[in-house]
């Protein structure tokens, strides 16, 4: 036993020394980005609670925030920026999604980029003040063309959702003068899985199309019951103000134009950016 303990302590020492050497050998910028990512995650969790998101009904029914982010992301192509994707639900179903992020370079601010995923109008409240009031529902569900009937088991339905999502392609066009077009990458697993008996949704999945790891477009797939029949439906939501075009099996099914900056910040659209300068003031 004493020999075993000696060997165990020696092995632990070697592992610790290796970890210290590995950390010391990491490039300074890589270490800095890891530290920034950790700081950003803590800030984003706290910032997610800065706003209460509600249905625009008489009771101002509050949506349920999931405390942990669905995704953590960065986008080295544009700079040092780290964020997290948070979701709010109503009766188990996605109702709003926000990409909350902290810039470190070349900018220095935080923002709360939100999109309604609800078929009802939403309100965002900070303190006692309404700071976001969506003028219309955030998504429009449509039947998935030529889709199979939803399978009986959850595992088989997941396979169907992954197959259906793979038939969607997303093209992004930058809003600058270059008009560069890029195809977004699909994350093959849903970032959120759900059901809502109250809304006759047997199964649902939220998929993300990303640039790097930064989500740009969300796809909702739902197995919905109506008149004793079950069928797959889809809806799409942007998470950027640029141009997007979405094809399903090479046929265009959804497109959105550039959202002018004045509209992005006017707090009346389903897609909006809310300011977090009060929460984390930029450096002067």
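^ Assign residues to that structure.
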């Amino acid at each position: 036993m004493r020999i075993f303990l000696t060997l165990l302590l020696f092995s632990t020492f070697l592992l610790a020394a290796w970890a210290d050497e590995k950390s010391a050998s990491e490039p300074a910028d890589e270490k800095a980005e890891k530290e920034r990512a950790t700081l950003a995650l803590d800030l984003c969790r706290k910032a997610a609670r800065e706003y209460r998101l509600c249905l625009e009904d008489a009771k101002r029914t509050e949506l349920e925030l999931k405390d942990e982010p669905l995704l953590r992301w960065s986008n080295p192509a544009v700079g040092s920026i780290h964020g997290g994707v948070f979701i709010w639900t109503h009766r188990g179903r996605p109702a709003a999604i926000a990409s909350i992020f902290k810039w470190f370079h070349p900018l220095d601010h935080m923002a709360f980029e939100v999109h309604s995923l609800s078929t009802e109008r939403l309100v965002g409240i900070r303190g006692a003040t309404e700071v976001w009031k969506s003028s219309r529902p955030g998504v429009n569900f449509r039947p998935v063309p030529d889709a199979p009937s939803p399978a009986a088991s959850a595992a088989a339905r997941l396979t169907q959702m992954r197959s259906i999502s793979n038939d969607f392609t997303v093209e992004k066009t930058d809003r600058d003068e270059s008009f560069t077009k890029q195809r977004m990458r699909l994350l093959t697993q849903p970032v959120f899985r759900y059901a809502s008996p109250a809304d006759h949704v047997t199964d649902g999945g939220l998929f993300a199309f990303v640039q790097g790891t930064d989500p740009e477009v969300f796809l909702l797939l739902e197995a919905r019951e109506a008149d004793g029949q079950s069928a797959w439906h889809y809806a799409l939501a942007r998470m950027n103000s640029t141009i997007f075009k979405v094809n399903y099996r090479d046929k265009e099914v959804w497109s959105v134009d550039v959202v002018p900056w004045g509209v992005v910040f006017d707090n009346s659209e389903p897609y909006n950016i809310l300011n977090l300068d009060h929460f984390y003031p930029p450096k002067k």
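The chain has one domain: 28-275.
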